[in-house]
Amino acid sequence: MPTVSIEAEPYPFELIPSRCALLIIDMQRDFLEPGGFGEMLGNDVSQLRRTIEPNKVLLETFRAKGLAVMHTREGHRPDLSDLPPAKKVRGKGKTTIGDPGPMGRILIRGEAGHDIIPELYPLPNEPVIDKPGKGAFFATDLHAILQNLGITQLIVTGVTTEVCVNTTVREANDRGYECLVPADCVGSYFPEFQDFGLRMIKAQSGIFGWVCDSPSIIAALA
Ligand code: C5J
Fold this sequence. Notes:
It holds the Pfam family Isochorismatase. This is Cysteine hydrolase. One of its GO terms (molecular function) is hydrolase activity. Keywords: Hydrolase. The protein has a single domain (4-207), classed as Rossmann fold. The chain has nine helices and eleven strands. The chain has helices at 29-32, 37-40, 46-49, 52-65, 85-89, 142-149, 161-174, 191-206, 214-221; strands at 4-6, 13-15, 20-25, 68-74, 100-101, 104-105, 128-131, 153-159, 178-182, 186-187, 210-212. Strands 3, 4, 7, 8, 9, 10 and 11 form a seven-stranded parallel beta sheet that branches. The chain has a two-stranded antiparallel sheet with strand order 1-2. Strands 5-6 form a two-stranded antiparallel ribbon. Helix 4 packs parallel to helix 9 and helix 7 (161-174) packs parallel to helix 8 (191-206). The longest helix has 16 residues, at 191-206. The site of dicarbonimidic diamide (C5J) has 6 residues, from helix 7.
């Protein structure tokens, strides 16, 4: 497929399909599902759930076109050996990472709540990057996988906009990737952080990347 131009801010994104991957960040049951850990902490999961349908359509488009897709999950080893003590105690909550939660031990690999929601479940050929931090590049093999595939551009979607999406976009930018973030495919529990999280990416002529809407990507790839 030839390069396609996508309507975006601060200016059009020139997408090279063979060099572009869809990277879906942390669409995990504990963050998104009613009754999960996110809701247990008092968050409004509908703010994240509105991203499911646009992500599904974008994912189906990438799959149909045979383009690269990868997923991430935030979580830790069952013995907590990769969980920094500072992360374990952060927030001083009664229930923290590794404790029993509504869908198994919180943010522990292998537990139901840690897994990706069924609507966006990875296919066997789609790499799933298990990350212990907020950024998808920290302590993972994501960069090696992308380099081996010749990927230089990322469409970054998922949750949450100001935390794991923003951290990943910043890490990717420093490693030389061009990042495009479709606003309807990323979500925050906090509407003001959604707004500022996106504005920080595209500010100063695209200091970290570009922002668009997913229909613009889908239309350009049609
Ligand atoms: C993500 C978080 N995925 N908010 N995690 O953003 O702790």
